[in-house]
Automatic annotation (TrEMBL):
It comes from Multifurca ochricompacta. The keyword Metal-binding does not apply. Gene3D superfamilies: Transferase(Phosphotransferase) domain 1. This is Crinkler effector protein N-terminal domain-containing protein. It is found in: Host cell; Secreted. Pfam families: Crinkler, WaaY. Residues 21-143 form the Crinkler effector protein N-terminal domain.
Length: 630
């Protein structure tokens, strides 16, 4: 239950008139105001259901989408001024946001809980007001429930409907998602449970909640996220302006402070955040909606403005009924999904920095808009409270804000130079990474070869100069030496480039780029290898073992079949025998029968390859007739 509203309790000693005026305010299911205050004239003997009808008429066309009896009316149990100044009005909105409305048929709602009391439709107005309400006070909060749009009834199937429908393009899917974002509940309500659970089932936002709702690394689609993480990991001394340490101390003090309400926290910390970031967090609403994040940094471009930073704040962990990371993710989608911002989505992936703050904790995330909005954390939740004895923590936090300031500057330059005529090819079926060259070669992506939900980032591409088809993949580790060994023996595609070997190893979304020949082929799947094909795999393993390599994941998905030719195509795990370790992400719950001793973090052994190789060996007719011979 939220804190009781201030002001003296209402008495019932006043004399009531036959008619009077109520000051009302409509809010959505996240307690966010829908428009401003409005007056409704009522009669003492009038039914509450009649007041519902009057409010629906008064708020037309905003409430045209639902029946009057869906409106839930609440009377404030204590007096609350509607506010004469902007500060008082903002304070009122924050108080309303903190109210936890009960289900309207519970005793707490019907009898009142000391904060609000539901106005039950069958009752008359004089049951709730036996006096003339005070002018200037807010009397009724109108709760407007979110109504899911019902799908239209499908017309009877026509003959022409049986013809194949072309797949939707990347641009068409993005437009559909953006339209849904505008129709969603506001971020403040959509982030609450159980609303967010339903949202992720019906219209998923790719922010990792739940675990299957994730997107490809955002660093593949804009370099600002890679630069930020590189700045955070740099061993070089951080360089800041002379005022930065002082401003940081003030920010840490303001974050560690205790606040009764969220608004004073937002206003105080944003003073010092603005100084550290070199830009101003301001209050900007999504046009024609009540959505307004706690702060945004904008940059005017393309006759509109781009959102460089989106900030959502909760007074403390657990307050506000929503996780700030989830709410900020929804805010990102709502801001960029607005139709007025189509111009940006036509020529960019809309990169933004996202700040999710709860009390003295802050998480930095990044957002991009592909076919769906994708939000990913760039840091853990970082402590911004007091700790006078840890200079290393202060230095780390100073580096954090220096990296953020640099990222904001990068985004300012990016959006400032954005040319609306340079449209992303929206006829394509997919969005592609921003990196399109290696060494002196440049290329164009053609299609993804694997769905990223399988944990692979593999694309078919074409070199501009020669027209040669290539495969571009992004990996967290790679054994280029082992790949080249097999490629020189026609047992792997020719290797063009491996970012792991580059003089300055560049990462894109914490992944290295690897480029090789495209070979037209397929996985073995359920068809067993022929003796000839098995012999080639056996030879590949022997060559690796002779150089003390262990392949590590000798399964059919990592074999490429082209006629009788077989190649090994995945060297992500390949390492040194009795030295390298199996990755900590090795999946032991997928039903894969790994050899004994194969486990996350265990040493890689040649005998593991031998065991996996034997499982690929073709079964002879004699062995099929008598399994005992096998």
């Amino acid at each position: 239950m939220g804190p009781p509203l201030p002001r003296e309790a209402i008495t019932q000693s006043d004399v009531m008139s036959s008619s009077f005026t109520l000051l009302c305010l409509a809010v959505d299911d996240g307690n966010v105001p829908i428009g401003g205050f409005f007056h409704v004239k009522v009669y003492s003997g009038q039914l509450v259901s009649g007041l519902q009808e009057d409010i629906k008429v008064k708020k037309a066309p905003e409430l045209d989408h639902l029946a009057a009896d869906r409106l839930i009316l609440w009377k404030l149990s204590t007096r609350q001024s509607a506010g004469d100044t902007e500060a008082e009005l903002e304070n009122l909105y924050r108080l309303i946001e903190g109210i936890e409305f009960h289900s309207p048929r519970t005793n707490e709602a019907l009898q009142g809980d000391g904060v609000v009391q539901v106005l039950h439709p069958p009752n008359r107005i004089n049951k709730y007001w036996t006096y003339d309400p005070y002018e200037g006070d807010l009397h009724v909060i109108v709760q407007v429930p979110y109504v899911e749009e019902r799908p239209r009834k499908k017309p009877r199937l026509q003959i022409e409907d049986l013809s194949p429908t072309p797949p939707l393009t990347f641009g068409e899917i993005q437009d559909i998602d953006a339209q849904k974002a505008i129709a969603h509940p506001t971020p403040s309500s959509g982030a609450k449970m159980p609303f967010f659970i339903q949202e992720q089932k019906n219209r998923p936002l790719l922010n990792g909640r739940p675990i299957n709702q994730f997107g490809p690394p955002i660093g593949l689609f804009h370099p600002v996220f890679n630069s930020f993480q590189a700045d955070m990991e740099s061993k070089e001394p951080v360089r800041v302006d002379r005022q930065a340490p002082s401003n940081l101390r003030k920010l840490l003090a303001s974050c560690a402070d205790l606040y009764t309400l969220e608004l004073p926290r937002v206003k105080t910390i944003n003073i010092y955040l603005n100084a550290l970031l070199g830009a101003s967090l301001t209050s900007v609403s999504v046009p024609n909606t009540s959505t307004c994040a706690d702060g945004v940094i904008i940059h005017t471009s393309c006759n509109s403005y781009a959102y460089l930073v989106i900030e959502e704040v909760k007074n403390e962990i657990g307050t506000g009924n929503a996780d700030p990371y989830t709410q900020a993710s929804l805010s990102y989608r709502r801001y960029w999904g607005e139709p007025s911002w189509d111009i940006f989505r036509r020529c960019s992936y809309c990169p933004s920095i996202i700040l999710a703050i709860a009390g003295p904790w802050m998480c930095v995330a990044g957002g991009i808009y592909l076919d769906k909005a994708i939000v990913q954390p760039l840091t853990e939740y970082i402590w911004l409270g007091g700790d006078a004895f840890k200079e290393s923590r202060f230095d780390f936090t100073l580096r954090l804000f220096a990296a953020l300031k640099s990222a904001i500057s990068t985004l300012q330059d990016y959006y400032g130079n954005l040319n609306p005529s340079n449209e992303i090819p929206r006829h394509l079926l997919h969005a592609f990474p921003f990196v399109t060259s290696y060494g002196t070669q440049s290329f164009e992506y053609l299609m993804p070869l694997v769905d990223y939900h399988r944990g692979k980032l593999v694309y078919k591409a074409q070199l501009h100069e020669s027209g040669q088809l290539i495969v571009v993949k992004f990996v967290s580790t790679y054994n280029a030496e082992a790949h080249r060994l097999l490629a020189n023996n026609q047992l792997a595609p020719a290797l063009h480039y491996a970012g792991t070997e580059a003089m300055e190893a560049i990462q894109y979304g914490e992944h290295y780029m690897v480029v090789m020949d495209f070979v037209d082929g397929s996985e073995p799947n359920e068809v067993p290898l022929s003796n000839e094909q098995f012999g080639q795999v056996d030879r590949a393993v022997q060559l690796l073992h002779q150089q003390n390599f262990v392949f590590g994941d000798l399964r059919t998905p990592n074999l490429l079949i082209s006629g009788e030719k077989v190649m090994l195509i995945d060297f992500d795990w390949c390492g040194t025998a009795d030295e390298s370790l199996y990755p900590s992400t090795l999946n032991t719950d997928s039903g894969i029968q790994w050899p004994d001793g194969v486990w996350p973090g265990e040493v890689m052994r040649k005998e593991d390859d031998v065991t996996m190789l034997e499982r690929l060996r073709p079964v002879t007719h004699a062995e099929e007739a008598d399994p005992g011979l096998a």
